[in-house]
């Protein structure tokens, strides 16, 4: 028998065997997939002793096909915090297999829509996943308006789920969120506000004028530190509070890339767009300014987030980062949804 005939017969036999077994085989494949889905949550993030930072959303206010709105997860020990919950960011929190039923709380930097839009999802989905205590939501003065509004908007949803599944499975307390207005620090000094199980959280003011109040947050855990700038232009308070930080996560808007579109909009008489674009440029930092902040603070690593404009390809990404490595000598990461940084706490000086 020719070799090709032999291979053909072997293939027919294998195909026949698979066909005969298709029921059990399909069953096994589907069961494996179900098991994977049911057991996908990565609980090791809360037990390995490291300080984890996961970017769940890295866009700015305008929709970006590749990025959800601003959201950063901080996980350390048994603590799991989200800083801001921008549009579609909850989808990432879920898809990144984060331990959502154990969400400790949400910290809001300020009340621009791109930072609060998914708060309803954060409350509802972590409740569905098993959180039974009210969710603590912290932010500047005014946070109770935001939280109260979401609670009202989701009150029908809450009732549906409790009635449908029963209070034993969907305890009504899990659908609740409690607003905590943080004190507004005087000057640029950060103010420690929380210290749950060894994770120290401090808040500081940033410069997002005319938006007032806007916060940045500093996290310290077992001698390591992470600073999140929130929305701000280049400001001394971030430099001061990111001093020697292991990681600085800074917002960045590449005005050298948006200027041209603004000028063209003016030429075309689309003055509204030109005016809005000009205004927006004034209260954000450029990538080079973010790099200068990291350099001045001696931060050990810089991650850029709140990226604008959308970066469709490598050329755009290159343009975005232009000049940053001259301004900052440390490593720079252009943040993307799903970027994860694990900071080892071994050998740190607590
Ligand atoms: Zn923003
Ligand atoms: Zn903003």
From TrEMBL:
* Any matching Pfam family: Lactamase_B_2
Location of the Metallo-beta-lactamase domain: 68-284
Keyword annotations for this protein, in alphabetical order, are:
Hydrolase
The organism's place on the tree of life at top rank: Bacteria
MF (Gene Ontology): 3'-tRNA processing endoribonuclease activity
Transmembrane regions listed in the UniProt entry:
none
UniProt xrefs under PANTHER family: ZINC PHOSPHODIESTERASE ELAC PROTEIN 1 (PTHR46018)
What is the official name of this protein in its record?
MBL fold metallo-hydrolase
Q: Which organism is it from?
A: Stenotrophobium rhamnosiphilum
